[in-house]
Design goal:
single chain; mainly alpha; Growth Hormone, Chain: A; 79% helix
């Protein structure tokens, strides 16, 4: 009884301290980092470094393939699609390998493959060599990401069970690190491209060598509490898990909406500004919002919303972003005024993302089988990726139909709004409130 009372008081104290507004996002981030275990700090810093190395090269790949290699446009698109498939589509394979062999060997293998892939890409001059390098680069992420994401999610649940605060705070910090890497990486790549593309690739290699060395030195051989599963049948049970598949479908609608940054938004910016130059500023706006406001948003949601309500609110905000553009399209504004709806869309989409992503990742441990968190984390990305693949083709068809300007945006708004009804109901006692 005394032990139970002390645990209740410790959780109440943690919630009371969480309720105090931070003095600023930087201080909150630094304070949270100091509270994390060494393993969590390693994994979060690794996510930052991995994204810096990745985004220093990949945003410039299409132009390199078209100009330096001389590939036709369709072949460039095919190569980029292969990279996405070898990464997102194979996350479930990486997750299964994590459950079978543990986090450390899979992370190390992913780092080695990423080093080999980027070095190969830097020297590739023929189409078949580029395709081989891109496949290696994609599969490296399919190994690395499920391993890191599943262990961060497992550690976040332990953090919550210890009464330190909602698990979403840890997962939000993980998102901040990834977004910061996605912001810094292209800036580094742009500087290195002043030399040539090969230099950018070799800089990426150097980053991944440092990541590999860090994990060889700091990653424990066996992580306490992590159980390896050697039996079969996990995939069959997963496919019968309706609540998890419902979560995947809802998360997939978010990813489909996020993909409109690269499909529907460029068309809108081109119409309003006469060029796509403002796109880079809108992408930067999204990254800066995540880096500086993700933790305050997560803290606010953690005091008021459980995981389902957090995802619901995020999906509805994303839907409202599409509605903003749809409502403004009949006016036909151009110039600076014409870009305001696009900026509103980016802001609402990003705030919705900040609610949806940590909540979805925090929910998976409650739905996964014991010992198969890697498989379920990988499946979340793979199933959602299939939804994005089918949905993006449908979106492209919709945009080409010549419908009234507002209609495609209203259809896109309906998708995340309807996904709220798909979200599974949370079982009583399944995890703590987000």
């Amino acid at each position: 009884m005394t032990d139970l009372l002390s645990r209740v008081l410790s959780r109440r104290t943690a919630r009371t301290s969480d309720a105090a507004p931070p003095k600023g996002p930087r201080e909150s981030t630094w304070r949270l980092c100091k509270e994390l275990s060494p393993l969590l700090r390693l994994l979060i810093l690794t996510q930052l470094a991995f994204n810096i190395g990745f985004y220093a090269v990949l945003p410039f790949l299409a132009e390199h393939l078209g100009t330096a290699i001389g590939m036709a446009g369709w072949l460039v698109g095919f190569v980029l699609g292969l990279r996405t498939f070898s990464q997102q589509g194979l996350f479930v394979v990486g997750g299964w390998l994590v459950d079978r062999f543990g986090v450390r060997p899979v992370v190390l293998a992913g780092c080695v493959l990423r080093i080999a892939g980027f070095a190969w890409l830097g020297y590739a001059e023929a189409s078949w060599t580029v395709i081989g390098a891109v496949l290696v680069i994609g599969f490296a992420a399919a190994l690395f990401s499920p391993a890191v994401e599943s262990e961060v999610a497992r550690q976040a649940v332990a953090w919550e069970e210890d009464g330190r605060g909602p698990r979403t705070r840890v997962l939000a910090l993980f998102s901040v690190a990834g977004q910061a890497g996605a912001f810094v990486g292209p800036l580094l790549g742009a500087l290195l491209l002043a030399v040539d593309f090969r230099t950018a690739c070799l800089a990426g290699v150097a980053v991944f060598v440092l990541v590999l060395a860090g994990h060889l030195w700091l990653m424990p051989q066996h992580i306490p509490g992590r159980v390896r599963v050697r039996g079969r049948g996990g995939a069959r049970v997963l496919l019968r898990n309706r609540r998890f598949l419902a979560l995947c479908c809802a998360y997939g609608t978010y990813l489909l909406a996020y993909n409109q940054l690269y499909l529907a938004l460029p068309d809108e910016v081109q119409r309003a500004a006469g060029s796509q130059a403002p796109l880079s500023w809108l992408f930067a706006l999204s990254s800066v919002l995540v880096v500086f406001t993700q933790l305050p948003v997560t803290r606010w949601a953690g005091d008021r919303l459980d995981l389902r309500r957090s995802m619901s609110a995020g999906l509805l905000l994303i839907a409202s972003g599409f509605v903003v553009v749809a409502a403004a399209r009949p006016a036909g504004w151009t110039g600076t005024a014409g870009l305001l709806p696009a900026a509103g869309f980016v802001i609402l989409l990003t705030v919705g993302q900040m609610l949806v992503v940590p909540a979805a990742r925090a929910w998976v441990p409650d739905l996964a089988e014991e010992g198969r968190l890697g498989l379920y984390m990988g499946a979340l990305s793979s199933v959602s990726g299939l939804i994005v693949l089918a949905g993006s083709a449908a979106t492209g068809f919709l945009l080409d139909l010549g419908l009234p300007a507002a209609v495609p945006w209203l259809v896109l708004a309906a998708v995340p709004a309807l996904a709220v009804a798909v979200l599974p109901r949370r079982e009583k006692g399944a995890g703590a409130a987000a």
